[in-house]
């Protein structure tokens, strides 16, 4: 407008110079003054300009806030933070506009405010890039948990294999969910859920010391059971029972020492299983009682036949004596075999002729009956009726 005033003044003075009469001069002057006055065109009132500027600030803030809201690269936390920053920038801009006193200050405050508002929207990395970062985090967590499982002394190898596979499955599921996400929040949620799922696949077993105690308790229980079985075994002599009972105790002690030396679940389990097998192997039943009875009765029959033959061939006996003694041998044999049938336990057989033959069977009452029978036969043979 100042330039327009200068131009109008120049024009007016040129017109005055061209006038040739007083009326011409006066007309040129009046026209020039009117033209110069018309060049000053006041703007809107300062308060109206301020309101217009603040309206522009609000409009830009609303636009940028909506852009932030719909930005798939931002998490909700980032959106909330940037939205607040826009609101703060708008408030600051409007305060600056209110402090302006003329059009230039108002316009400057408005422009600076719009720039500040625009700068608050900072998009995140591309969604695909965020997906790859999330999947890398899943792989890293899966590797860590797999290593933890591998080095866990409370787990058996079977448990380790099972949990390791579960980690791999959880990682695959997590990465599939990440791939299906379309926003930063979706990616972040899939990643967080996946990491939790992966972590949950590692389930440590009981503490090694607790596993050791459990294994030793199992050894004691098995030892007590086998000891009782030995105690009640009718095929064993007391000497055999004592020997086998001590062997069970020794096997149990050895097993528990091996358990104490174990450092992980597999070693504990192996020591326990080996110990139970060893304990079980210490109980070695003797021949069946019925089998031992039959062996004893066979020995009676053999001895009876021998003595009967000796009587038959004895030249010092009359036929009547031979018949009497032969019948006595038969009666003694029958009595001996009846006694054997009634026996229920086994004992060590003294070293008689028959005893040496049967000593491997460790006969107790059965062999006592056998010895009594044999002694009766011998007495009959030597007694001249």
Describe this structure in words.
Helices cover 78% and strands 0% of the residues. It is mostly helical. Helix 4 (76-99) runs antiparallel to helix 5, helix 6 (127-150) runs antiparallel to helix 7 (157-180) and helix 10 runs antiparallel to helix 11. It is rod-shaped, with a radius of gyration of 58 Å. Mean pLDDT is 89; it is low at 348-364.
Largest sheet: none
C-alpha-based Rg, rounded: 58 Å
**Low-confidence residue ranges:** 348-364
Task: Tell me the overall shape.
Answer: rod-shaped
Quick one: how many beta strands? 0
**Which class do the helix and strand fractions yield?**
mainly alpha
Strand content: under 5%
Ends distance = 174 Å
Q: N-to-C SSE series? A: HHHHHHHHHHHHHHH
- Mean pLDDT across every amino acid position: 89
Number of helices: 15
Instruction: Summarize the amount of helix as a percent range.
Output: over 70%
Describe the secondary structure blueprint for this structure:
Blueprint: H1 2-18, H2 22-38, H3 46-69, H4 76-99, H5 103-119, H6 127-150, H7 157-180, H8 184-200, H9 208-231, H10 238-261, H11 265-281, H12 289-312, H13 319-342, H14 353-358, H15 365-382
Helix pairs in contact: 1-2, 3-4, 3-5, 4-5, 6-7, 6-8, 7-8, 9-10, 9-11, 10-11, 12-13, 12-15, 13-15
């Amino acid at each position: 407008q100042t330039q327009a005033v200068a131009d109008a003044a120049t024009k007016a003075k040129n017109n005055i110079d061209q006038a040739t009469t007083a009326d011409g001069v006066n007309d040129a002057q009046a026209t020039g003054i009117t033209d110069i006055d018309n060049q000053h065109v006041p703007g809107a009132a300062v308060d109206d300009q301020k309101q217009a500027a603040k309206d522009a600030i609000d409009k830009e803030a609303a636009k940028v806030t909506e852009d932030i809201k719909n930005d798939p690269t931002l998490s909700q936390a980032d959106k909330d933070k940037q939205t607040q920053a826009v609101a703060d920038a708008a408030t600051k801009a409007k305060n600056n506009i209110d402090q302006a006193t003329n059009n230039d200050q108002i316009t400057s405050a408005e422009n600076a405010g719009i720039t500040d508002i625009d700068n608050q929207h900072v998009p995140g990395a591309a969604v695909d890039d965020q997906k790859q970062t999330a999947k890398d985090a899943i792989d890293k967590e899966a590797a860590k948990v797999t290593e933890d499982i591998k080095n866990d002394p409370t787990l058996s190898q079977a448990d380790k294999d099972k949990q390791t596979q579960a980690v791999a499955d959880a990682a695959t599921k997590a990465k599939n969910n990440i791939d299906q996400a379309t926003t930063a929040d979706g990616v972040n949620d899939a990643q967080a859920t996946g990491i939790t799922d992966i972590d949950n696949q590692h389930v440590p077993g009981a503490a090694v010391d607790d596993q050791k105690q459990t294994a030793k308790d199992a050894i004691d229980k098995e030892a007590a059971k086998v000891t009782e079985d030995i105690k009640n075994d009718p095929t064993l002599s007391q000497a055999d029972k004592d020997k086998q009972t001590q062997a069970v105790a020794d096997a149990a002690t050895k097993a528990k020492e091996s358990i104490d030396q174990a450092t992980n679940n597999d070693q504990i389990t192996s020591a326990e299983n080996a110990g139970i097998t060893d304990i079980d192997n210490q109980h070695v039943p003797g021949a069946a009682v019925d089998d031992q009875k039959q062996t004893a009765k066979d020995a009676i029959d053999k001895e009876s036949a021998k003595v009967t033959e000796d009587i038959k061939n004895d030249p010092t006996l009359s036929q009547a004596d031979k018949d009497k003694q032969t019948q006595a041998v038969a009666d003694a044999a029958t009595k001996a075999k009846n006694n054997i049938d009634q026996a229920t336990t086994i004992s060590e057989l003294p070293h008689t002729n028959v005893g040496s033959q049967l000593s491997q069977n460790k006969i107790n009452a059965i062999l006592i009956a056998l010895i009594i029978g044999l002694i009766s036969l011998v007495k009959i043979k030597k007694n001249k009726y």
